Amino acid sequence: MKILTPKPFYFDSGSSAVLLLHSFSGTANDMRLLGRFLERHGYSVYAPMFAGHGTNEPLDILQAGSPEIWWQQCLKAIEFLKAQQKDKIYIFGLSLGAIFATKALEESSDVIAGGVFGSPLYNQNFSGIRNAFLPYAKKVYSIQQDLTEVEIDQRVRVVSSKIDLMLTEIRKTSLGVTENLAEIKRPYFIGQGTSDKLVNPKSAQEVALDVKTSQLHLYNAGHVLTINGAHEQLQSDVLNFLENN
Question: What positions does UniProt annotate as the active site of this protein (predicted)?
């Protein structure tokens, strides 16, 4: 089976730009539906790829990436859109990307509004993310036809031995961002699936209490709102948010 390598994308379609940040085990592909929708409505859209992602080696995420590397990539993405002379820049992030989208709204004066989908902020326990990443790793290895079951299991064990250190670093970054939520004065979109198994859906309500400018949208759906059954409603809600901010 030929595996198509996911790639970042940039749709140049208007003077206002939307920056989309993907999740921990995801890629820019998870943002493509939303990106194309916004492009059709006259917005430029940029979805970079976090370091270590989009390869056929799950360990790359744990070894080539880090919260600091991903944050610097977020800042570079904002600089890229400024260099494209976009007069308005919005930012949204899914799961891991939500941490950096929120940090940008706290710290970057270049971003005028944005929000999060399936945000892990206020989640004390990242076991859901761990439990989702290991099957993801096994699936990636299983697609590689030259690996035996024993070799696949060996590789998954290596991933399991290394992921906790990364999740600890992500949690530290998340806590730092959470502590500064009250600093956000710009419009803040919160999209949360009520049947999310990776993060606690109730955490979104805690974030909404902290961010006085927030708009909370709940969906009868799971974690990856950009591609699951809620994606069309999410697209409509995000567009309405952009049009009014």
Answer: 95, 196, 223
3-class state of residue 115 by DSSP: strand
For the chain, percent of residues with pLDDT exceeding 70: 98
The number of helix segments (H) and strand segments (E) in the chain equals 8, 7
Strand extents, DSSP E, the chain? 9-11, 16-21, 44-47, 88-94, 113-117, 188-193, 214-219
3-state helix, strand, coil in the chain (%, to 5): 50, 15, 35
Kindly tell me if the per-residue pLDDT of 4 is higher than 60: no
Q: Token pair for residue 75?
A: 């800042």
Domains identified in the chain and CATH numbers = 9-243 (3.40.50.1820)
- The alpha carbon torsion through 195, 36, 4, 52 (nearest 10 deg) reads -70
**Would you tell me how many other CB atoms lie within 10 Å of the CB of residue 144?**
14
CA distance 184 to 103: 9
What are the backbone dihedrals phi and psi of residue 113, each rounded to the nearest 5 degrees, phi first? -170, 170
Least confident interval from 25-39, 92-106, 131-145, 203-217: 131-145
Catalytic residue IDs: 95, 196, 223
Our measurement of the distance from residue 8's CA atom to the centroid of its chain's CA atoms, rounded to an integer in Å, reads 13
